[in-house]
Amino acid sequence: MKEIVVLSGKGGTGKTSVLAALAHLGAREQRLVLVDADVDAANLGLVLAPAGLAEHDFVGGKLAKIASDRCTGCGDCLRACRFEAIRAAGKEDGVPRYVVDPLACEGCAACFHRCPAAAISMREQVAGRWFVANTRFGTLVHAHLFAGQENSGKLVMLVKQQARELAREQGADYLLVDGPPGIGCPVIAACSGADLALLVAEPTVAGIHDLERILATTEHFRVRALVCINKSDLNSARSREIERFCADRGVVVVGRVPFDSAVTAAMVQGLTIGEWAEHGPPAADGSAVASELAQMWRKIEPLVPRQTDST
Amino acid sequence: MIVTVASGKGGTGKTTVAVSLALAVATDTVLPGQAPADDPSVVLLDCDVEEPNAHLFLRPSLDLRREVGVLTPVVDETRCTGCRRCAEVCAYHALAVIEGKVLVFAELCHGCGSCSWNCPEEAIREELRPTGLVEVGRAGALGFAQGILNVGEAMAVPVIRQVKKQGAAVVPGGLVVIDAPPGTSCPVVESLRGADYALLVTEPTPFGLHDLRMAVDVARCELGLPVGVVVNRTGVGDEGVDQYCRAERIPVLMRIPLDRRIAEACSDGLPLLEALPEYRQPFRDLYRQICQGVAG
Question: Where are the beta strands (DSSP E) in B150-290?
């Protein structure tokens, strides 16, 4: 089983559309397991129409809770907290009251340890849900981190771990992971242990800047990267800049996907661009995009490093 | 006043909207032919510290550059008795005691200070472990600050906190426009915390709608902020975003059509207001609507 993660640094470059297209292509001849690792804003399900098999709670970190009947109002918790998560909340019968802001609390327990009245408890929080579902291209493991929660990296690790186990049970050939934007905690979790990262870049100044940072990140974690230039004809000078940058860095550009509004039209219908090109209205067929992606998939397969299976 | 521009989904045009809004208001306060005042009254804070892009459009001059990070423990081995108290109190497993010696896994440390405070021997002091940079400067009439998370670092929030702290000091009492990262988890919450208004940028597609709902959950339901929506690239996609905003009584303050000229200007790092000056007035109007939204 080989694990490919689609990343981009910059958001909105087309990660999910590219991954869905690859899933459509890969599922023709191989067994796939799919992961949506963008747990903040999971969109892969909108294209794959998952039918739920199982649903689980995700227990994230802990949150502090102040028991007002034990609190003496000394204010030590307020002074202990470095995350501005404890606020003074006026007085009750002349005793100062403090409350925890659950969105600011990092669960460090500094207040819990500092409180002389043992009025603070640390409570586990259900911070999201994760799901195993059937799709037309294979099993999908996806998740939903509740609004404003922490520990997105932990949830990404969890869904990836579950997906790897399923992939092994099913004898899958590929685990395809749709990654989150950025370069921080959930991205590091999404690319950890991957055999290959496909970086989807767009030919804009921001796209190039962000490609450099995500490539530095995959290099830092020693994951081999390939680049796909999406909407490559939007700015051909910037596309050439990406080509030169990749050539200098020894990174293979495996795809140059032209802009086509058919990609959006397909998304609105819940179809991959390949399905759209096969079954959609001929007036806006998206076939140039579909055939470039099909070629890209053929180029990617032999470039995935040989499996070392360290997990 | 603090206006945070957020989106849920990435690539919807947050940076374009934030930069345009800040520039439209900053230049509004300067009369034609008059030099900008010494102190800017508007500052743009780029809090997308994982992928900061606003500088590519504003090309600011930078006056200050500071390493920021997390306070992490340093153990004085001459005092440490190997009692394990530090490892017990650490919620992040950033400390372990092996054969009587404390090991620090600095990248797991959130800098809460529990280890040093609880050490019975006072053997732990804290040192700043740099995880990023904060840069402060200005771009013409506009104040500017950004954070840059170091490659390989997981935690964006400590860098975002510092951008907000140092950036807000640039324009006491003025307008602060925050360019937030995509998503809805802790870095976004930190970018929205303390704001007076959340301006949510979306695109009229199923992906845009799905992620807009998440952003509304954070900004309005969790943080209690007034919210307004900018729909970018109208003309593609479907009616879902409009139907949702009507049903939820969320004002759609502005619509920017899908326009190849805008895409091309942005792709070359040209601010929208320079490429298409006819957008200056709509962004000033947007600001007025935001002020009304804040006033309730």
Answer: 175-179, 197-202, 227-234, 252-257
